[in-house]
From TrEMBL:
Domain Importin-9 central HEAT repeats: 156-402
Region (Disordered): 722-753
Species name: Riccia fluitans
UniProt KW keywords: Protein transport, Transport
Protein name: Importin-9
């Protein structure tokens, strides 16, 4: 018999071989199966021998050997599931023996520290050999098996599997000590997917629920009840770590809270949420402040998880407990749980209950802000945002103490994008409180003035962050406040656009100028005393951003800035439209960034709408631009190619309706242009780079009007697909069979034709897919909220247009129609039927 070390090395080599064969099976399925089939049975028998004995304590060599056997099994299940399914029963018993006996060793060594767990022990190659690393590998295998359609049937006694999983989810002695000493690490480990048995256990429970649904949920709640009883028995027996089992049980049920809400509503389970919540409130939140802090914190965490399903009376009871959890003498784990609970409970507690306590909450959160760091800052700021939205009167009273603290957090953490964004959102929450805007601006403007007066002396990231803060203040601000802000910051912001080479600074400064123009309007030009000079500064800024020599990412938001100029300063901008379009096209030609090019197309689409009903004049203007290339041909060729890359329902509506206007105008200049048409290369499967080199993708050429009609038809098809097909994750890969190893081989215009503005004709139409307007569109493009184009039902609009267009000139329409592919023809025919 060879020693454990040599056997383990052999298994490492075997694992590498199986992994390599698994990769090769994608192209050589028959060959790899032929290699694997004769050896698989004997391998599984050897794995069974390794896994059969009970897991010993204080034996890293044995743990490491089992770990490598589990890794080999995981590769077999992942890559050769069909081949292994018939022979696999030989290893099921030993696997279960390892799982069950491993829990006893884990509970003794890791949870209760009665034995040595060899935490951090590694071999000469750096591979960890600790008991926890071995246990995590067990869960890795189980996760792979449960996710496999062929192997999830090995889960016979689900309640037992869940029962032991909850045991494995107990807090280890090392975690307890680490988290007690460093609350920041506790929050980080709770929020991030860390390498631990607790996380692996949660992932397994979620995978079971995903695949077994109600059966798994019932098994989980039954196992939780058993573990809660055992924890009470351990407490009665005087075991010091009794609370760890109870905490793990609460963690388990809270991790599937969302799924429990659904089955609770259907009444298909014996589990009742109310008694469970009452139990943890009475048992865990009724203890002394310093007793079992992690359990008390977990009870408050559970209140946050179940907040959507808690009635008002229980919400108030948990709210009181959470407020007490913020007291200065309370251990950090309880404060963390209290923050999580409050953030979720504020919306469901009446103002009459909130108001007497919000002063204490703000004071406690303010104190925590001054001593927190990193992950805990995220949590406190999120809780503070919820508190500020809970009651305007209390928030206004706390502004003088909270604003300086949050502003200080923002200034200290501009280099950390996550914390600075949280702080900025908290300041925005203060801004939204009535009566808080004026005092907040009074605090922020001097800070911004100091930063912009000494831009070269600021730490990295400070200028970009200050611009973000300024933009936030400007959004939807009263005009008098916009003017006060303009007097102090407008010139420095323009200077940044004209002189800076930093991408973040240029992007944020562009957004700030857009906000100034949107909120200031025509009056903005008069505030400096010289409207001509003010307009020229804005045009100079636009010119710098549209310079093809400037890096594309620096000008990413120039489209929104130009749109703000032409919508809010339209009378002043009209004489500059021709050079503006010239600069826009030059920027497009000099960039390969799709996002930048599509943003410029949206600006062009806006200009098309503004030119209606005289769209032909816009076509003439583009065709006659003083450039050394065919500007109209370039613009329409790029627009036709990039229409499918335009993101967001509002922008899609804007671009599609503009294309309809261009098609409807029937300008001869458009008819002379030929663009990329239909795909010619007959390909099957996924086109890789190597395949595209052998057989390059080829397209036909088609007349621009026919291409515009085809794009409108494609939009109708897309809307139809959105309505009729449920969104599946990774639907690009739906051709893959569930047997992984087998599959590897195999100013807007009118409704076209009318003389009225679309603002009147389409005001009462619905949205793109007959759904509510997406909030995200408002965030990406603030114009969307007030633009009637965003109110249209695009499907209705296109059907209406196509009926008018095809009837207007039947012979031309028939010629264009014949250039469509069969699906596009069917879509057009259905639209006009």
């Amino acid at each position: 018999m060879y020693d454990s070390s040599l056997r383990r090395r052999a298994l490492i080599v075997l694992h590498s071989c199986i992994s390599t064969l698994g990769v090769m099976s994608g192209a050589f399925q028959k060959e790899t199966r032929a290699l694997m089939a004769p050896m698989l049975k004997s391998w599984l028998e050897q794995f069974a021998l390794i896994l059969s004995p009970p897991v010993p304590v204080e034996d890293p060599d044995d743990w490491s050997l089992r770990m490598e056997a589990l890794k080999c099994l995981q590769q077999i299940v992942h890559n050769f599931s069909k081949l292994a399914s018939t022979e696999f029963p030989v290893v099921l018993g030993p696997l279960w023996q390892t799982f069950v006996s491993g829990y006893k060793a884990y509970d003794s060594a890791c949870v209760n520290a009665e034995e040595e767990s060899f935490g951090g022990l590694a071999d000469s190659d750096g591979s960890e050999q600790s008991l926890e690393a071995f246990t995590i590998q067990i869960f890795e295998f189980l996760l792979t098996a449960v996710a496999s359609p062929r192997f999830r049937k090995i889960v016979q006694n689900m309640e037992e599997l869940v029962y032991y999983t909850i045991g494995y989810m107990q807090m280890t002695e090392e975690q307890e000590q680490t988290w007690s000493a460093d609350p920041n690490q506790y929050v980080a480990d709770e929020d991030d997917v860390t390498f631990s048995c607790r996380v692996s256990g949660i992932l397994l429970l979620e995978e079971l629920v995903e695949n077994f649904e109600d059966k798994a949920l019932q098994a989980i709640v039954d196992a939780v009840q058993k573990r809660l009883i055992e924890a009470n028995q351990a407490k009665s027996a005087g075991r010091k770590n009794w609370w760890k089992l109870r905490e793990a049980a609460v963690l388990a049920v809270g991790s599937i809270a969302g799924n429990l809400f659904e089955v609770q509503a259907g009444g298909s389970m014996s589990f009742r949420l109310e008694p469970f919540l009452d139990n943890i409130r009475e048992e865990d939140l009724g203890q002394g402040v310093g007793e079992c802090p992690f359990l008390r914190g977990r009870a408050l965490w559970a209140a946050a998880k179940f907040a959507p399903a808690i009635n008002k009376a229980r919400s108030e009871q948990f709210f009181y407990a959470a407020v007490m959890g913020l007291a200065s003498d309370v251990p950090a784990p309880i404060k963390i749980g209290a923050c999580r609970a409050l953030a979720e409970l504020f919306p469901s507690v009446d103002s009459s209950i909130l108001q007497p306590h919000l002063g204490i909450v703000f004071a406690s959160l303010g104190a925590l802000l001054q001593e927190a760091s990193d992950e805990t800052l995220h949590l406190i700021l999120e809780t503070l945002q919820s508190a500020l939205k809970a009651d305007n009167q209390a928030s206004a009273a706390a502004e003088s103490s909270i604003s300086p603290l949050v502003l200080n957090v923002w200034a200290k953490n501009v280099a950390d994008p996550f914390i600075s964004i949280d702080a900025l959102e908290t300041l925005e929450a203060i801004k939204e409180v009535p009566t808080c805007l004026e005092p907040l601006v009074a605090r922020v403007l001097p800070v911004l003035a100091t930063i912009f007066a000494n831009t070269h002396q600021q730490p990295a990231g400070m200028i970009a962050a200050a611009l973000d803060l300024l933009t936030m203040l400007l959004k939807k601000a009263p005009k008098d406040l916009v003017r006060r802000t303009h007097d102090i910051t407008f010139l420095p912001v323009v200077s940044i656009v004209l002189r800076s080479d930093d991408n973040s600074e240029l992007q944020n400064a562009t957004e700030t100028l857009s906000a100034f123009v949107r909120e200031g309007g025509e009056e903005l030009l008069t505030w400096s005393g010289d409207p001509t000079r003010s307009l020229q500064m804005l045009l100079d800024a636009a010119g710098r951003l549209l310079n093809p020599e400037l890096e594309s990412s620096s000008a990413l938001f120039v489209g929104g800035f130009i749109t703000a100029l032409i919508l809010n300063l339209s009378s002043n901008m009209a004489p500059h439209f021709s050079p503006l379009i010239t600069a826009l096209l030059a920027r497009m030609r000099g960039s390969e960034m799709i996002a930048l090019k599509t943003s410029i197309i949206i600006v062009i689409a806006r200009l098309v709408h503004m030119s209606a009903p005289n769209v032909a004049q816009f076509v003439d203007m583009v065709a006659s631009l003083p450039v050394d290339y065919d500007a109209l041909e370039y613009l329409m060729s790029e627009w036709a190619k990039l229409q499918g890359d335009i993101q967001g329902s509002y922008k899609l509506k804007l671009s599609t309706t503009a294309l309809a206007l261009l098609l409807d105008c029937g300008h001869p200049q458009l008819s002379r242009i030929n663009v990329q048409g239909h795909l010619l290369t007959n390909t099957t499967g996924i086109v890789t780079r190597s395949r595209s080199k052998v057989a390059p993708i080829q397209y036909s050429t088609m007349a621009l009007p026919a291409k515009l009609l085809s794009l409108l038809a494609d939009t109708l098809l897309e809307i139809q697909d959105q309505r009729t097909s449920a969104p599946d994750e990774d639907d690009e890969w739906d051709e893959i069979d569930e047997d992984e190893d087998e599959s590897k081989s195999s100013g807007v215009s009118a409704v076209p034709g009318s003389e009225k503005s679309v603002f009147k004709a389409l005001d009462d139409m619905q949205h793109l897919y007959e759904e509510d307007i997406e909030d995200g569109d408002y965030q990406e493009d603030p114009v969307a909220a007030s633009d009637p184009i965003n109110q249209i039902n695009l499907s209705v609009h296109l059907r209406h247009f196509l009926k008018q267009f095809l009837a207007k000139d039947p012979s031309t329409s028939e010629r264009l129609f014949q250039e469509l592919n069969p699906r596009q023809k069917a879509a057009v025919q259905a639209a006009v039927a």
